[in-house]
Amino acid sequence: MHPNKNKPRAESGVDLHWLSSVPSFTPTGTAFGLPWAQGEVDRTTPFTVQDQSGDGVPVQSWPLAYWPDGSLKWTGHALGTNTGLASTLHLSTGTPTEPANPVSVSETTSAVTVTTGSFTATIPKSGTTLLTSLSTSSTKSLAQDITLLLLLQSGPDPDFASGAGGSVPAVTKYEGNIESVTVEQSGSVRAVIKVTGKYTSSTFPFIVRIYISAGSTSARIVHFFIYDGDQTKDFIKGLGLQFKTPLTDELYNRHIRFINSPPPPASTPSASEDPGIWGETVRVVSGLRRDATAPVLNAQFEGTATPDLSTWPTSVSSEIDQLAVWNDFSLAQLHHSAFTILKRSTGGSASSWIDHAGFGERAAGVGYVGGATGGGVVFGVKDFWQGAPRSLDIRGAGTDTATTSLWAWSPLAPAMDMRRYDTVPHGLDLAYEDVGDPDPNPTGIGRSYEVTLQLFESTPSRDVLAKLTSVHTDTPQLVAQPSFYASHNLFGGRWNVPDTSSSGLAAIEKRKSDLLDFYISDIDQRSFYGFWNYGDVMHTYDQTRHMWRYDVGGYAWDNGELSTDLWLWTSFLRTGRADLFKTASAMTRHLSEVDFHHTGPFAGLGSRHNVSHWGDGAKEARVSGSSLKRPFYYLTADELIDYYDVGSVEEGVASSAPAGPGRLRIGPDWTTLVGNWFVKWERTNDTTWRDRIKVGMNDIGGFTYGLLTGNGAAVGWNADTAHLVDEGGEGEGAYDLMMIFGGGELLMEVMELITDEPAFDAAWLDYCRLYNASNADKLARYGKSFSSSSFPFPQYYAKLQAYAGQRLNDTSIKSAAWTVINANTVGVWAPVQTIGGTDVLNPINEIPNLATNDAGQLSLSEYAVMAIAPELAPGSSFIENVDWDGRSSTVATEETSEKEEYAVKKRKGKAWRRLLCV
Prior knowledge:
Layout: E1 14-18, E2 30-35, E3 47-51, E4 56-57, E5 59-66, E6 72-79, E7 89-93, E8 103-107, E9 111-116, E10 119-124, E11 131-137, E12 140-153, E13 171-175, E14 177-186, E15 190-198, E16 205-213, E17 218-227, E18 235-246, E19 254-260, E20 277-281, H1 294-302, H2 314-317, E21 326-335, E22 338-345, E23 354-360, E24 363-371, E25 375-381, E26 390-395, E27 401-409, H3 428-431, E28 445-456, H4 462-473, E29 478-479, H5 482-487, H6 503-525, E30 541-542, E31 547-548, H7 564-575, H8 578-593, E32 606-607, E33 619-620, H9 621-624, H10 630-636, E34 662-665, H11 666-684, H12 687-702, E35 714-717, E36 724-725, H13 743-753, H14 758-770, H15 775-782, H16 794-808, H17 811-823, E37 833-835, E38 844-846, H18 852-868, H19 891-908, H20 910-913
Antiparallel strand pairs: 1-7, 1-29, 2-6, 3-4, 3-7, 5-6, 8-9, 9-10, 10-11, 11-12, 12-13, 12-18, 14-15, 15-16, 16-17, 17-28, 18-27, 19-20, 19-24, 21-22, 21-26, 22-23, 24-25, 25-28, 26-27, 30-31, 32-33, 34-35, 35-36, 37-38
Helix pairs in contact: 6-18, 7-8, 7-18, 11-12, 11-13, 12-14, 14-16, 16-17, 16-18
């Protein structure tokens, strides 16, 4: 069916490059995924990687997805530590090069041991110790007793700021208790160990994955936890990971390092691109009344061993024991734009902290604890300042063992408050907020954080730390060229690399690029950061207040509404922009963790957009659907994203139809289930999931009104059989929500593979062809008139109109799609403008009346129309003719649509209210 069959042959291989610049190091290796054309690569085919000199680079490969014929659709690949550090690499079929220090995994009844060269990691199978040790030899274990920590506060923080008294609620410490340990991957290039458990006997479950790469002296630890406590009394005071480091060097040869984030791109060629470093010793000998001399001072500053104490000036050495011993250190990033460094002497709690030891804006989350000759640990927390409040804490640096705590939620911050922003809902009419039944709560949402621990036999130089920090804050990622991705028609395939061959195409491309630039910059401008917030953007702009509607019901956090993530991923695939990859990755991580209920009463469902990410009453499959998470998973081979339970979103609600005990909408509910089944099918090659898709297709193909069946496409649904039932009501509601949550792109892809459901295919093409067509055309096909109000947002559906023209080889239909795009002014905004003075707190850049729904959906529609019919694009720009005072957002229309749906739900009762929740 697809017009482009000229996909790359596997025998030609794939050219790869680093997403940003070539990294100086890859301490934990790297992983990536690649697509293949159907029938090109057998599941037993080996892969090899060469650098630009033709030298082999060790690689480990595994299947990610399959075509229906069993050939490989996507493959995952991993490179070892500090390998492939070249500007270009080439992956092809062939025998892989073996690493010099291959990974080895051994397992007993009590532990899993992973080794590579002299590095060993020991993972016990029970107890509260995540890793017993990380060592570089049998006698040098530099990271010991690695443990997960949860501090739980029994109530909210008192409001002392009001002037009231009171006491602080009790805080209880819990350590993560291990329930299972599984070797998920064991190869010569890397090992992946999965650990599961709970913090208490019955609550706060977690999943940890430990990654170790060939040639490494480090462990990458990805921790995912689920909040399933009582929001009224379980307030998390601290969440993190702790380890111990033996110290043998003299106090003046023990070093602490904290590293700042790398500066933004230099404005002048002479400006340094290295991050700043705060580095001190446990016993400082500089700045004294007596001079310790340059050999001593320089060595201490650089982290190398000082000359023997006997060679020091006696005026210093004779009284060195009188100097303070700095035992405790803390870097607190309690806000994304400010951190402080504190230190305290061996006086401990009997002495005060020095709270002005250092300060800055955005710490990298990277540090070091250890000795000049005895070695130590470089530690790092990924997305450190972005996920504030975080902190890095070292205790006991003046003793034989230092204890380091890496806090994903800092105990120095107010306790995590999971209660909703208000105790009552505010309704759709004004606040655009759906009510709850039961009331929305955070039970089952989750969040991950990532830690790296790297061992060094001696204190690393400042230059090495700077390079490690740059790698840590900008994770190295291998990708292919946009033209390669486009040639594989990924994720629906109706997009292409940017085309500026005509003035009309060039105008749209520039507008799309400018819009993406604004969204990327606005994340920082508006501080869309924080433990639960990072990765999300806002839904709708408030032009009066010159800010996003952060406090207005359903207009606040976007929660991926109308497939914002698909917009960003498609934009990356067609451009290769590194900033889009990073933004889309953070968004997918957020959507799949925070906006998705993994356990509890809403398990398997996601939360509609709201002031609180989990605060809206509508719990919907469309938010939690797995098909939109595929770009992140397949491009990165990230294991954490691969956990969706499709069964948990299939339960319906009682209805009067005996054959359909539940009710859902064909779109976006059934299409979301189709996406989940499709992912299961391609991930496992199990046709059971394909057959569930086909059951619904067969039913829809037999409906008189095809995809326009039902009131707003609502039909009966049987979760056991996957059958759909026509319950009537067609034409009574709107059909605008059906295909704007990624459903349209999904069905374009699915229909490439399921070619034996001709009745459904005809109904699908009719829907695509007729959504924007006249009522006369609909009457001719269905024998029934439909109100034009049932088909709003024609600009969103121009992509399906063009697709129908492509499938039917009908230029007039494709031309009609271009007519919609050319005439549309919704989502075509005025240029960025600057607002300052007394109207705003700080000067800001804004796009008036901006709405993320329109930004994402119009972009996806325009991408498709441009790719399908570039020859029909206007020859000159039409942007100049837009009336900027006209309506530039669909928000009012969408609000009306959901109000109408809400009114119907109220008439139908609770069973219909759950329509949005299936």
